[in-house]
Automatic annotation (TrEMBL):
Top-level taxon of the source organism: Bacteria
Organism: Rhizobium bangladeshense
High-level lineage: Bacteria, Pseudomonadati, Pseudomonadota, Alphaproteobacteria, Hyphomicrobiales
Region entry Disordered, spans: 414-433
Name of the molecule in the record: Replication protein
Length: 478
């Protein structure tokens, strides 16, 4: 783990003043532009960064309304952040940490580029009233003790801190492992008031340069108080490495266990068959992706009458396995509004059982199934979902479904994967192999006729076995 720290002990100087420099670092250079450019970098060829970034502002009118809107990821989002800080009202402005297809929802995620933890340290007697930099230093120390990599940067949000670990841009498929990292960070940083409700991928945090209306006047402005790297370019982690260091069982250890099992099998000591399966979280993330592909293939965006209940129930079950229970209700409400136009009250009524079971599972409750205590969330086999939604083979192929397929399509996908693997290894297509063999056979027949070469001579000449040259000449002569 790197020891290049951007921390310095707190001084009497206000950390928000532009010329606040510690060990050569001017944290004031990390403004709204730098904030957005690091969270949502400009689009590059082949980049995952697409879709929109969500902004929000809490209004202090009679209704105390929450206004939310989006801007295209990349330069447009950066320009929007800069514009917001130029307006008169800079209080309580937020920005999403991920990008989305059309609006802020876990089911709409297009790219995740950071892990994070929201620390409400003002709720802890030990840290209440302490200077943000002193608390940030203690946070870094605790992370080092837990052998977790340093955050890319830490922001003071007025009454707490936000720790951010920047990573490469990741697709939604990584969400199960990303959630595991988030949960681990929240557990380790619990002594600093880590908010367990702020670990989901659709989270918004305060924009750098904005103001927290509820904070003390001298700490109202949101700004950087610690960084790893430099304020202009905070360090960016490789997610797989970050996850390996943060999680108790690393991917490398799993690979090692698989290698050991392969060795034992080769020695005849392991008689069990191969275990090829998806975890519960990765299975349900793939189910949700298939459901969205099916909806887009069948109906474009909205679901027609008669097909809403079944689709949304399955989608809600999928969300219960990949979304933190604290935000599951919000996520299901957003998905139901998007897919079926349901009102909030209607969604809560129809999906209450799914939400209730997810909360019971989070509390550690189980149910007995097959003589075993298991997670009490709903679970459904892929074959059951295919039957429920009446997904025919043609749709399975046309929509590009991966899990919600019948046995015939599973066989086809297995063959397709095998062919793709062969292509990656440079193995030629069967038709190409046959054409090459026929050409070799014709040449061999000519050389045998013109020069009297024997089968063994021809095999040595072409660098193949005698059996291969015989087969090639036989096919060429037919």
């Amino acid at each position: 783990m790197s020891r290049r720290l951007g921390y310095a002990p707190a001084t009497s100087q206000d950390f928000h003043t532009p010329q606040c420099q510690q060990f050569g670092f001017d944290y004031g250079t990390f403004g709204p532009r730098q904030h957005l450019e690091n969270l949502h970098p400009y689009a590059r060829p082949g980049s995952l960064r697409k879709g929109v970034v969500a902004f929000a502002q809490r209004r202090h009118d009679a209704d105390k309304s929450w206004k939310e809107w989006t801007a295209p990821a990349g330069s447009a989002a950066v320009d929007e952040a800069v514009r917001l800080l130029r307006q008169d009202n800079r209080a309580d402005i937020y920005v999403s940490q991920a990008a989305f297809e059309k609006w802020r929802s876990i089911s709409q995620i297009t790219a995740i580029g950071a892990c994070y933890a929201d620390l409400d340290y003002h709720t802890r007697a030990r840290w209440r009233g302490k200077a943000p930099r002193d608390v940030a230093a203690a946070v870094v120390g605790l992370l080092e003790e837990a052998m977790i990599p340093h955050p890319s940067y830490i922001l003071s949000t007025g009454r707490g801190l936000v720790c951010v670990w920047l990573t490469e841009l990741l697709p939604r498929a990584v969400l199960p492992r990303w959630n595991a990292v988030q949960k681990r960070l929240g557990t380790v940083l619990e002594p600093f008031g880590a908010d367990k409700r702020a670990l989901d991928a659709a989270r918004v945090f305060r924009l750098v340069g904005s103001e927290n209306s509820r904070a003390d006047r001298d700490r109202r402005t949101v700004g950087m108080v610690w960084c790893h790297g430099s304020p202009e370019a905070p360090a960016r982690h490789v997610f797989s490495t970050l996850a390996d260091e943060a999680l108790p069982v690393t991917h490398a250890e799993l690979v090692s266990l698989r290698a050991e099992r392969a060795r034992r099998k080769a020695e005849g000591k392991d008689k069990t068959g191969p275990a090829v399966y998806l975890s519960a979280a990765t299975y349900w993330e793939t189910v949700l992706t298939d459901l969205q592909r099916l909806r887009a293939h069948r109906h474009g965006r909205g679901l027609p009458e008669g097909q809403r209940d079944a689709w949304l129930f399955v989608a809600g079950v999928a969300m219960s396995w990949i979304s933190p229970p604290e935000v599951l209700g919000r996520e299901i409400i957003a998905l139901a509004h998007e897919a079926a136009g349901w009102r909030t009250s209607e969604t809560k009524s129809r999906m209450s059982a799914v939400i209730k079971r997810a909360r019971q599972a989070a509390a550690g409750q189980t149910v007995t199934f097959g003589g075993h205590e298991v997670d009490c969330r709903y679970r459904m086999k892929a074959s059951t979902i295919v039957e429920w939604l009446r997904i025919d083979p043609a749709e399975q192929r046309a929509a590009g479904l991966r899990v919600l397929v019948d046995e015939d399509r599973k066989g086809e996908r297995s063959v397709e994967r095998m062919e793709q693997s062969r292509r990656r290894r440079g193995v030629k297509d069967r038709r190409e192999q046959q054409a090459a063999r026929l050409e070799m056979g014709r040449k061999a027949l000519y050389l045998r006729s013109a020069q009297g070469m024997t089968r063994d001579d021809l095999a040595a000449h072409f660098g193949v076995s005698a059996g291969q040259i015989s087969k090639a000449m036989r096919e060429a002569g037919e």
